[in-house]
Amino acid sequence: MAGGALICTIGNQQFKIDQGTDFNALAKQVPVPPKVAAAKNDPKISKASISGPRKEYWIQAEPVTWNIMPKRRDQMIGQSVAKKVGRTKGEAYAYRLYEPNFTRPLGPATIPGPLLDATVGDTLVVHFRNAVPIPVTMHPHGVFYSNEMDGAYKGQWTDPGGFVQRGRTFTYVWECPETSLGTWMYHDHGPFETTGIPKGLFGPLVVRDPDEPLPDREYFLGFHSFLPGVVAPNISTIYAINGRGYTGNTPNLTAKVGDDVAMHIYGIDDFFHTFHLHGHRWQNPDGTMEDNRTFGPGDSFRIRWIEENPGRWLYHCHVFSHLHAGMSGWYLVE
Amino acid sequence: MAGGALICTIGNQQFKIDQGTDFNALAKQVPVPPKVAAAKNDPKISKASISGPRKEYWIQAEPVTWNIMPKRRDQMIGQSVAKKVGRTKGEAYAYRLYEPNFTRPLGPATIPGPLLDATVGDTLVVHFRNAVPIPVTMHPHGVFYSNEMDGAYKGQWTDPGGFVQRGRTFTYVWECPETSLGTWMYHDHGPFETTGIPKGLFGPLVVRDPDEPLPDREYFLGFHSFLPGVVAPNISTIYAINGRGYTGNTPNLTAKVGDDVAMHIYGIDDFFHTFHLHGHRWQNPDGTMEDNRTFGPGDSFRIRWIEENPGRWLYHCHVFSHLHAGMSGWYLVE
Amino acid sequence: MAGGALICTIGNQQFKIDQGTDFNALAKQVPVPPKVAAAKNDPKISKASISGPRKEYWIQAEPVTWNIMPKRRDQMIGQSVAKKVGRTKGEAYAYRLYEPNFTRPLGPATIPGPLLDATVGDTLVVHFRNAVPIPVTMHPHGVFYSNEMDGAYKGQWTDPGGFVQRGRTFTYVWECPETSLGTWMYHDHGPFETTGIPKGLFGPLVVRDPDEPLPDREYFLGFHSFLPGVVAPNISTIYAINGRGYTGNTPNLTAKVGDDVAMHIYGIDDFFHTFHLHGHRWQNPDGTMEDNRTFGPGDSFRIRWIEENPGRWLYHCHVFSHLHAGMSGWYLVE
What confidence tens digit (pLDDT) does each residue in A52-66 have? Predict the structure, then answer.
């Protein structure tokens, strides 16, 4: 499916996304759902059952000037790709972590958003505030939540958490039972999700096993893409990892021999990808060994090994047209 | 691969499918294979070994006027999509269930066709009659069958079951040994399968474990697509579930808290999809938890859980351009 | 991603591949990386640790005149597809097996290259010589190797094994520990891999369990594609298995009832495929039964069963536009 077709479906409007889009006007074209209109700004979280230890986050969705390829070079091929790709800076959206009660941001706004880090038994309490023009949300994968904590736009049945307008807040309460063990993600699922997600509104979520030691190093890698016009108006399509495209711009992962290393991979665009890592294999839960895995949008998985192989290694999507349009990076082992 | 290219390969003819196609003329362009010409109308099923209890079906492939989106609205976004999508009614094909000896249809012709429901040890005996202009077949996945029960067109080596002409019948005999346990599908595999399948000739097949209790509720969901011209001449591509596109048109699944719920998913078009269900996770055979799974054409799987989460939930393909072109629905839990 | 876009990324040059491409000139557009320039022609393999029994191969990458569809017919549909597909002969590249010290070729150059056949504990020693105009390499999946044995171009960090120029040799040393058990592949990963791989530079690699009996019959099947211009200038895209497209051209696999049969499948193009085999199911490591599996570029797996079903069976990709553009073949069981 071409990217253009995707973008055309935003809120059922037939428009072409580009820098000229008036998102304030766009936001007004979807009516406020009745349950949202009737709700207080931020419903008491006592409505939701909270059991177990709380993990509490304050997160704001906000615009950010983002450069998809700040170094302008692809270190994998040792050349500048600036001319081929086009100007890679533009307006993105990001989930940004704040101190309690939104007093101060905790570091810069980034794509992906902050890791939501829980252990089996925890309850995630996420205070969300929207500072982008269109209504957006946070929809989690993997965790347990009651229907009104779904964070999904559902037309006339939309709950307040599924349509958080600019300037409004909503507190999501998500539980982490044993059946939520694993690596997951969260992302915008509002009425304009086909704008919000490709502009950067997604992030990783993990529910850990309390009886499993933490790895020495771990990385969360979101595989996604920047279509022309969504963030940067005149780029060619960039297949990205964690908001950046092309080796040297994507995360430089590091480890030392002897480290217990985990990588958490998830896909959140319109395409299917694979994860391949040079010089390494990992064991699947079914006992087989693997060094390449197919995954689709919404899929997530964790791989883990004891590091034994020093060197400069490539990790990348093995779809060649994705690999050669940005979807690769370095894993540096000392 | 664009849909147009796919359709162009039908029977190796270079033509563009639309309402003007003369299927009677088309059918004559593929010669009757020698073994088909030599065969009696319906070979005695005594030719095939039948062991174990028989599960017997009478199924006819027939034209049906089909509306892909009868409600003209997408309840997920709370808006009419009629103008965007185009006129969604046209001529489809369907496998229709009949009473023994084709005396009377058992309900209306539907997409997908009827569930073929067997238990390990059964033998499926499927009396098939073709009432569409082109030769079509039934080809099953997962079950055991001898070569002549394959239901596949194979050029000069085609058996009678692989080329059932209009007005002819064929009885398929398919066995269900232990190695056939699981969720599968059946579909047209005649010389014009790239017309027959996208027009609706597919359906679910299950081989159950006799020692496993039946679920309280179960749903069989075929993920497929309607390309412009195949059923409705001027639609945009619709990504469909069980013959319908867009939430409120696709199946409204229901369950109650406490129910043992199973969903059987299969893919039968030219695309890769994922299955995602809000508010729920399921356990894989390898022990991992999942709430989203990638699958391709011909793949099938079952997921199952004890229902504990009331509400109005979305199930959908997580490929955004599929999700926003019809591939979603409601799962309503009381 | 369209094939055109893929080819345009070769070595970051904006050119359109066709028969007119001057590959000698192309090769000169990527500078020799510093470590390659500094290296002796073929570094002593004593640099690498060799433990366990050696499995030694001499392999040359060389041009080969290749016919993708020598029979000009698709036996699956019983018709000539010559006119539809176009002239299918052109210049490909192949990994060709030689006698020790490259004294004589062992048979013709083929797509895919020779099987690299190891058992857990072995060390693969592969003497590689390049006889094509562009620098190419051998990059293996699944095995253990030190960083300089990676066979991957990495810009300024490229080791000699990652940039083997025309007329040069390099000896790769790859170990096969227990964690390398399984079916894998190898392929070009030089600076022009998006030319080298689609022109034919890939092959299978297996690391066997010493305690598992060998199958009676086994087949290694690479699923890939020929885009217009890469090998044959004016073809339509052909979805191929082991270098050939369309049933009767792709491998005719054979077995006898009672045989212990293994098939090793891998994907090495820009697309996702499925493997489907008529009349058969196999058991997955997690215990489930399957007759169709999705896989992506770089994925590989083995399936195995005791043959019990005689006949003429189709194996194919279940993506219909791939199936009907060459990706199918016969499995003939006596």
Answer: 799 999 999 999 999
Name the token pair of B205: 């097949």
C286 contacts chain B (CB < 8 A): yes
For C320, the 3-state DSSP assignment is helix
Q: How far is CA C115 from CA B251, C62, C97, in A?
A: 49, 17, 9
Task: State the pLDDT at residue C321.
Answer: 96
Identity of residue A248: G
Residues A246-259 pLDDT 10s:
999 999 999 999 99
pLDDT digit string (tens) for B255-272?
999 999 999 999 999 999
Cβ(B133)–Cβ(B167) under 8 Å?
no
Q: How confident is the model at residue A20 (pLDDT cuts 50, 70, 90)?
A: low
Strand-by-strand arrangement of the C123-130 sheet: C89-98, C54-67, C123-130, C169-175
Neighbours of A322 (CB within 10 A): 26
Nearest chain C residue (CA) to B154: C76
Name the phi and psi angles at B32, rounded to 5. -70, 125
Q: How far is residue B299 from each of residues B127, B275, B293, C43, C119, measured CA to CA in Å?
A: 25, 12, 11, 47, 32
Structure pTM?
0.95
Strand pairing class (B182-187; B139-140): antiparallel
CA dist., res. A33 & res. A21, Å (int) = 23
Residue B4 clears pLDDT 60, i.e. is over it: no
What residues pair up with A186 in beta bridges, in sequence order? A140, A203
CA gap A137, C286 in Å, rounded: 37
Cβ(A330)–Cβ(A313) below 8 Å: yes
Per-residue burial over A38-52, b = 16 or more CB atoms within 10 Å of its CB, e = otherwise? ebeebeebeebeeee
Query: In terms of Cα–Cα distance, which of C215, C283, B294, B78 is closest to A154?
Result: B78
Look up residue B281 and give its two tokens.
């996770």
ipTM: 0.94
Judging contacts by C-beta atoms under 8 Å, the chain A residues touching residue C205 are none
C168 vs C61: CA distance, rounded Å: 11
List residues bridging with C38 in a β-sheet.
none
B296-333 pLDDT tens trace: 999 999 999 999 999 999 999 999 999 999 999 999 99
Closest C-alpha among B211, B177, B150, B178 to residue B51:
B177
Residues of A in contact with B274 (CB under 8 A): 296-299
φ, ψ at B44 (rounded to 5°): -60, 135
Separation CA B152–CA B137 (nearest Å):
7
Alpha-carbon span C266 to A290, nearest angstrom: 12
Q: What is the mean pLDDT of residues A115-124?
A: 98
Helices (H), chain B: 3-8, 23-27, 34-38, 82-85, 193-196, 320-323
Token pair recorded at residue A49: 């059952």
* Separation in Å, CA of C182 to nearest CA in chain B: 19
What is the Cα–Cα distance from C280 to B145, expressed in whole angstroms?
A: 9
The answer to whether B285 contacts C288, with C-beta atoms less than 8 Å apart, is yes
pLDDT in tens, B202-222: 999 999 999 999 999 999 999
Residues in C closer than 8 angstroms to B31, CB to CB, are: 78
Residue in chain B closest to C329 (alpha carbons) equals B154
Residue B100's φ and ψ, nearest 5 degrees, are -50, 140
